[in-house]
């Protein structure tokens, strides 16, 4: 093994270099194991989440679609919240095996859920919830002619934080969920 050194510096002896190589190799091997573990964990998390894959560019797709529907009735914008998104992603990961649209017990957040076959993006899910708009009668503050509470959660004026997740279930279906803070749909209160 040859080592080059700058003029005026002492060459490193092969004995000290070998000891250095062994120590460096041991240290680097340890770092390599840690790096592989971190990459493995990151990959397993990334594969369970479908956010950012396919047609969906980012969480901004969820935000933009919500805000478009909210603007139609003069409700201010909703903003993405990473903590709320992490909470929602954790719950979505629990639904991968069954794709059931169950609300988690004791959640402090409002939620909308959707399940669909194929590539159901977050934007498509939010637009689907928004199709309930004609079923909401503002004057009576009731759903008439069908379900409307997914829509009213979207436009709930006090819900200003949003976190969503999208996962592909083992049966091939897509599960989409959005959480809202503070929650909406309080009995006797209008959304806007």
Automatic annotation (TrEMBL):
The keyword NAD does not apply. Keywords: Disulfide bond, Membrane, Pathogenesis-related protein, Plant defense, Signal, Transmembrane, Transmembrane helix. Residues 57-188 form the SCP domain. Coiled coil: none annotated. PANTHER family: CYSTEINE-RICH SECRETORY PROTEIN-RELATED. Probably involved in the defense reaction of plants against pathogens. This is Pathogenesis-related protein 1. It comes from Trapa natans (Water chestnut).
